[in-house]
Amino acid sequence: MRTPSQWFTAMVAGLASVALLAATASPADAHSALESSSPTAGAQLRSAPDTIELRFNEPVLADYARASVSVGEGAPTTLSLEVTGAVVVADTAEVRTPTGERSIPWTLRYRVVSADGHPITGELRFAVAPAPPAPDTTRSAAPEDGGAARTEDIQAPPEPDQLKSTSWWWWTPLALLLAGVALTLRRLTRGRT
């Protein structure tokens, strides 16, 4: 027959095990999620894309896939989609982009249903910045200040997957703390029996 301290130790060890398992499970393990996109979130493009590709971690159902895009302050435009397994390609070739020299924000909103029946909604934001005007060929290519010529490249920020924090890291000290408490209580109660 087990003593109360043995029951308590077993209970704390069980809770620590459950906490550790829950901590190591990522959201992608539980449900479908967007893995990557092209263009990436936050990207600065030189021209409007003809397509936008969304790649999920599990296949999605073509019948339930929907997407729309808003360009600048414009109204959302419903997009035609092609779904192949876990990849959704949105046709944006007909989307009108305002002209000008400033960066124009694009927002893609999507809703798909994974093969296991879970809906996935989200949005992808990026911008289209037209290429700078061609340099005047009648002027010298050297800068007037005598310094080195500079070029500015617009680079996309890291993929959202690269920015994911490891939210499980704080569960490890918690599990160790619970295990330490269980062992301490076990030793304290062992001397009383």
From TrEMBL:
GO molecular function: copper ion binding
A cellular-component GO term for this protein: cell envelope
Subcellular location: Cell envelope
The entry's keywords: Copper, Membrane, Metal-binding, Signal, Transmembrane, Transmembrane helix
Recorded superkingdom: Bacteria
InterPro entries referenced in this protein's UniProt entry, alphabetically: CopC/D, CopC_dom, Cu-Rt/internalin_Ig-like, Ig_E-set
Presence of keyword Secreted: no
CopC domain residues: 31-128
Chain positions covered by the region annotation Disordered: 128-162
BP GO terms, sorted: copper ion transport; response to copper ion
Signal peptide (residue range): 1-30
Transmembrane regions listed in the UniProt entry: 168-185
Protein name, per record: CopC domain-containing protein
Organism: Nocardioides perillae
